[in-house]
Amino acid sequence: MRLGDPETMTPRFGAVAGELEGFAYEGAAMGFAVVDLISPWPRRRFLRFVARAARRHVYMAHVGAGWALARTSLRLAPRLGPLDPLLRWLVIDGYGFHAGYFHHHDAIDRQRRPSVVHGYSQNVFDQGLGRALWFVKGADIAGVTAAVRAFPQHRRADLWSGVGLAVAYAGGVGAEELAALFSAAGPYRLELGQGAAFAAKAREGAGNPADHTEDACRVFCRHDAAKAAAITDLALEGLDVTDSAAAYAAWRANIRQRLGASPDKERPG
Question: Packing angle between helix 121-136 and helix 244-260, nearest 10 degrees?
């Protein structure tokens, strides 16, 4: 078995527990992406990994590619090859997570974005940054809430979306804390739910459900995880991907709209 060959990696993931499997694929994708980014000729190892071994974990794999770009340069992104018009934005999400997790003094405390992040990439960067907040603050509800509220108002929606994704995918708290976080999100509860729905879809596609994902979806989305994942699929209907940024923004907005159509009486107290 050649360790550098994406096609031969799948058996090695058998040692990772199903619930944690996505993180292993995220790390492997980062490695293959780094090889693509630093190679003097096109290798397309990341795309080969996504197309075969990591096809069930395609969301996490794209996030891993974002880590690779954060460790090299965002300007090298074309070396990864032609990416899916929607999933390519998860690369920027991963880039934002890396900034928040490894450079939190700059990205979170000083609220700085890298100068190379422009346009709608700033919104997606902040979604990744919101995910990092959940880990940097140690799943502390008060700490996460205070950190998000310290940001300018125009950045909070994307940050809450990232928080929702991290909570639902990675877990770390119980029912009481989930309800407290939902309450703290205030006007950004639909963003919290949109992030949780993304997490549910990632786990559904990978076939590795988790109880904490189910719990988070029931609180943030007012649906079980299966329904939340289905909403992300329904939100794709009629989407024009000609403009990649507009399509990704519309996808997220459509998810929030569908979540908002659920009866208010189902909201947690």
Answer: 60
What is the pTM assigned to this prediction?
Answer: 0.91
Q: Which two tokens stand for residue 194?
A: 């949109």
Can you tell me which residue has the tokens 């939902």?
Answer: 182
Query: Any alpha helices (H) in 175-221, and if so which ranges?
Result: 175-185, 189-206, 211-220
Per-residue pLDDT of 116-160, as tens digits, reads 999 999 999 999 999 999 999 999 999 999 999 999 999 999 999
Q: How far apart are CA 22 and CA 221, in angstroms?
A: 22
d(Cα 26, Cα 53) in Å, to the nearest integer? 12
Q: Give the 3-state secondary structure of residue 127.
A: helix
Q: What is the DSSP letter of 263?
A: -
Token pair of 221 as six digits? 């989305």
Question: How many whole angstroms separate alpha carbon 130 and alpha carbon 188?
Answer: 13
- Span between the terminal Cα atoms of the chain, in Å: 54
What's the CA gap between 28 and 64, in Å, rounded? 8
